[in-house]
Batch of 2 targets.
Target 1
Amino acid sequence: MKLILKIAAVSAVFQVLASNAREPRHSGIGPEHLPATLLAPANDLPGDEALAALRATKLKVVPKAARDFTLADLSQFLGEGGTSVILPKGSVIHCPEALTARILDSPGGTLIPWPEFLIAHRNWVSTREVATAQIRGEAGFTDSDRAAFKAGGKLVIATFRGNPVTVLAPPAPAVPPTPAAPTP
Amino acid sequence: MKSFLLLTLALALPAGAVDFARQIQLVHGQAVVYDIPLTGTTGQVLSKPLEGDGAILQLYAFEDETYSPWSLLDLNAGNIAHVNLALDSHLLDLEVLGINLDLILGGSGTPEPLPQLLDEIAVGTYLPEATITLRSEDSYLPVRTRADRAYSFNVAVRKLADPTDPRGGITKTRVDRDFKLYHPQLHVAYPDGVGQGSYAEAYEFNRNGDFTDTTVYQALPAVRPTKAIGEETFTARVPMGSTGAQVAIASGTIQVWPVSEAVVENIVPGKRYIAVPQDARVVLTDLYPDSVTYAHIYPGLPELGRVGKVIGSSVVSYNTYAPQNAVVPLSVTDAELGADGTYTIEILTTTPFNHRQPERVTYVSFVLDRTIEIHGTLVNSEKK
């Protein structure tokens, strides 16, 4: 008896839930898709003149303003053999003489995502994890770093947590201010 | 000061996965770019520490030629391919596109194989914040409306600096309104920036608070305003960093779908019929993506506000993303009709607008006359 009561209670809960959840209306053809209650039409669909009258002022159309941060301006591309990749501008930190032709200003061939490109071109592309200070241009690379890049013989892309990033050039060493001429 | 920024990238886009997020930071007036590859359509990105003036986050997607409706167009020779040729040359074909513009809208002249910018937002400790909300009577997402219905625009502006504050800061934000026209059959934006532009009017806000305009009509440059198809975007921008480059801090987009039309075929208005013609049908175009459309018939002349007998064969329902076309038969048996006389067939459509009360699309009246008159003479020839 108790079991029957339990089953009845559970089914009652499910029925309530089912009635609360609104079944999404389906696309289809046939009278079964009619609204539950048929109302009389209230108005005609507006014509072009009626709508033009509603929109009292006609807005002037101008070409879209150029963006300040465009994709191409802040990007540089690497490419070889029909595929290329988009990278942040300034992310190439070392490029051997022989590979300079593979740095492009615009995409050459099909653009593919960076992780795929790196896997396909590991023979000439490598990455180097950089510190925040290096990204900000507050610290440069050491001489041993440069020697390692050179010895590797590959193009080196700066990464931060595994993703390509711009590395700003460290500011030129500050010229000591010339002492002001003593005023008589 | 170091703070981590957790971004939730939730995209309300019908197709196309985001392929990478680009973070642009200004450090000493120079742009530092950080690309984060992404997979899937939703996800979270833990950004690197934010320092300096702020950061711009952009979402990009590579165009997938397999799914692009434009590559399908190229396959189909003939009329549509001609349209595509016209688009490639960036000359808008007035008849085909229904645009009364003399200027060439957008477009760089060469097809750009670059990834497409999907969304952009600038964040920073000293940047104002804004939220733009567009709403129509239709609760569907992405937000959409019908060309003849007004929608509401709301912008909530926060953290604008007081102009009298000696520490300075950004004191105003500018909201621009852009548009993108869609292809009337494919229901997508034209490639390579064609059919895009801005409206000359812009709003400027120099106080914090919520600002609302409840009645905004779409202003897409279409020859027939009811047939406008495209999207309108409101973007709030502020100058960032020492360069004063305009960056977006909020944006909102609404899709505009055309008003539907119907043509009753094979019933001539006012003509006498002995029954509703077998081949009578309705050609429906640009039905709203969420709509139920049907024909009903009642005795008498056309009169708005009557409830007639629904013609079962004509009921067509849609609950989808883009406008739809349909051709439905008008099958009315003799038993469904009453006495002879004038009858009217009306095409009605119910949409989320008007509280789902039907709106009349078109109507036709005809005369039902089942009396068969035989004109003849009875001749009786009798031989006498």
Note: The two ends of chain A are 115 Å apart (CA to CA).
Target 2
Amino acid sequence: MSEVLLLRGGVVVDRSGERRADVVVRDGVVAAVGPDVATGVAGTELDCSGAYVMPGFVDLFSGVGEPADPSVETIESATRAAALAGCTAVLVGVDPSAPLDSPAALHHLRALAAGASCAVVPSAALTMGAAGERLVPMAQLADLGVRVFGDPGGVADPTVLRRAMAYAADLGVVVALDPVDPVLAGGGHLHEGPWSSLLGIAGIPAEAEELGVGRALALALRTGVRLHLRRLSTAASLGMVAAARRAGLDLTAEVTAAHALFVDADCAAFDPAFKLEPPLRPAADRDAVAAALRSGVVDALVSGHMPASAVAKNVPFAEAAFGAATLPWYSATVFSPVECPPARAVALLAEGPARIADLTDRQGGPVVAGRPANLTVFDPEAVWAAGPETAVSRTATTPFAGRTLRGRARHTLLDGTAVVICSEAQR
Amino acid sequence: MSSPASPEPVSPTPPSGGVFVPRTRVLDAGDVQRAVWRMAHEISERNRGTADVVLVGLASGGVAFAARLADALDDIDGTRPPTGTLDVAFHRDDIGLRSVMPHGVTDLPVEITDRVVVLVDDVLFTGRTVRAALDALNDHGRPRAVQLAVMVDRGHRELPIRPDFVGKNLPTRRDELVRVGGDGVEVGEMSA
Amino acid sequence: MRHLLGVRGLDRDDLVHLLDLTASFRAVNARPIPKVPALQGRTVATLFFEDSTRTRLSFETAAKRLSADTLSFSVGTSSVKKGESLRDTARTVEAMGVDAIVLRHSASGAPHRLAGWVDAAVVNAGDGWHEHPTQALLDAFTLRERFGTLDGLRVAIVGDIAHSRVARSNVWALHTLGAEVTLVAPRTLLPPDTSAWPVRVTDDLDDVLRTVDVVYLLRMQFERQGAPLVPSLAEYVERFGLTRERAERLGPSTVVMHPGPMNQGVEIAPEVADDPRCLVLDQVANGVSVRMAVLFRLLGAGPLQNAGGGGDV
């Protein structure tokens, strides 16, 4: 692209810190960064005053519906929502209904992703059909560019999991795990505790996650695999992660924005918008998640976007599908209410996820000349309403409905092209 | 279900809360007692004695009044006519428009079929309570006749109902309130 | 009060109001013509996704005695189409012109969701393990009739509390009306976390029986979803059953209650079921009056006013 974009008046934030600087983007890359670099340069100006210029965010957990159920969400609508959240890349393949387990599926996904508002990065299943039995052709898929492997919902059989981890360790790819014991968790619909007791609904005990985390850590230690723990939700799980890291394990962990914000009590009105996977936990766990985001125990904040159709949600709580739309609102959470400083926000939203998914050549910063221009201009003080007015996903059900958020992506640049300008999608 | 002819939004039944503030005492205790006596005589005269008469006081304002009429008739005729109470909450025509709570119990000590029922209430106003009472009586039998005795007729009828025995005719404004007690009859209003 | 979705959240005045209304309707039901025109022209639909002829008939009788018209949909008679969502079924029913929908459903919270989809008044006739408000109301009414008041009454609820909507509704109703509630069950039959509930919890039935005014027995289902909840039925009866021997140790004024239907020989010995201290028949008899009170309260009562004093209509 020969278009020249001038990002004027912002504060550049990346892993090297914060600095007042303008950015010139030319031909898809960052051409210059500095206080005066835009002076006298002809190009389209994007106002960045009062905002941070950050590496574009990388969402490690984006449910996109397609190809399994395009009526729920398409790659086009999901990436548009992600771009509005400030993302320039999303990791897909986490929908339980459409595990990616073959080169053909990979090619199909890449074809669908042409013209999307973000880079669509595939993650593959660990086992064929995510059935937990036979391993996928990991080496073949890795050769075709897949770096992250994991079955949605976890692997029940520890023998299979151990084998998958050993195989993956040889290839140097990442095993991304939903650490949950499916037997203990089975049949539940919300966190097992005071609210499930009051509402009379079968619960999912916290132990289901803790058992899953313990098992994953033990197996990872022995196999030496690069382990990434998905969607952690309890204080105990986070404690185990911290301890494992201190013991030297090559371990990364993510949490979803919803788990840093909402609690089990939000299910009190039986609203399936709060029926999430893993379930929303009590306040002590929610607070531990927020603290872990600030302290660095957690490496990545993900959207956890798992849109469900109205048909799947307009039913009694126990019958409703798990999951809800969280794009484009998730990224605001890291600023408010979690209150991470900007450097930490960049680590959680962009740099950490890019490192985990081996995308650092194109994503995650730093914001320096020569790097691909995958950037977002994020206004941490912008106030906006979450809900149908700002929903872009095809599905309406979201736990964010009715909330006022602080922090919004103003502009997003994908490989040097502005896909979001003044908080409006261009694609 | 207010009458189409009535333009005022004020409902005849007093709003909740507030205190009744009397402005005028129109009858004192002695006046009330004399009226009771007169009405008892009229009831006895009209029905040629009280052999077949049943007094039915409408809950809640008519209950005490019915007892006083029964006492007076006891003195006049030598026997106290059977006296019962009737709660008409479930027969009202404004159910669904305002909260309706039963005021008291329905207790009819004798069969009313083929007898003369004298409905007794303290104040006659729009006539809707009496209509509900006629409806409620149907559940209990078929009286030979139904007569109506009220201490005060304050006008503003919305149905073709007229009393047979009246203590006092008292023209009032719609927004006023009438209170009948042992100590007399007062006209006033409700303070907020 | 627009809907009756549960007892939790109703305050003491609400409950007393409903009990007083029940007393009035009980008087109506004692008459030769047990009928009043109060809800004439209104339509009450019963929508039962779980079979329960007894409760459904109780609601329909209540509606008819208030002179309302009734529509009846139940999964037993396959007028509730399998596969049609609750939301679509309810909106179809409402389109026929109903003022109230009485819903029984196996999913907790179904009536709450229903209330968001329809304009009609919603009455919860039992949702999953969550609440069964009219059962708790008729239980409270039965106790008030027997003891005069529920203040200070010591009530033990025995059995599978975890899966019982009757237990939950009763905990809230009894507590709000001033009773002291003790839950008696093995830990496997208790909800995971009752620490915030206004109850005492124990697994020692014999200890409780010494000082209790009301023994409320829950129906014991041995298996749920293929898994036994207790090691054996014999063990349950031995630890938690109201056997003849235990019944003999009850005080003369202690009463026994059960929401029905009773598993005779399990939670209650057959001889005890026939004991005059067992109020099960009173409970059933009060069901229609309670449901009349609820329907009248929801459909008959407009803005809450204190009808009293001064001039009359």
Note: The first strand of chain C starts at residue 43 and ends at 48.
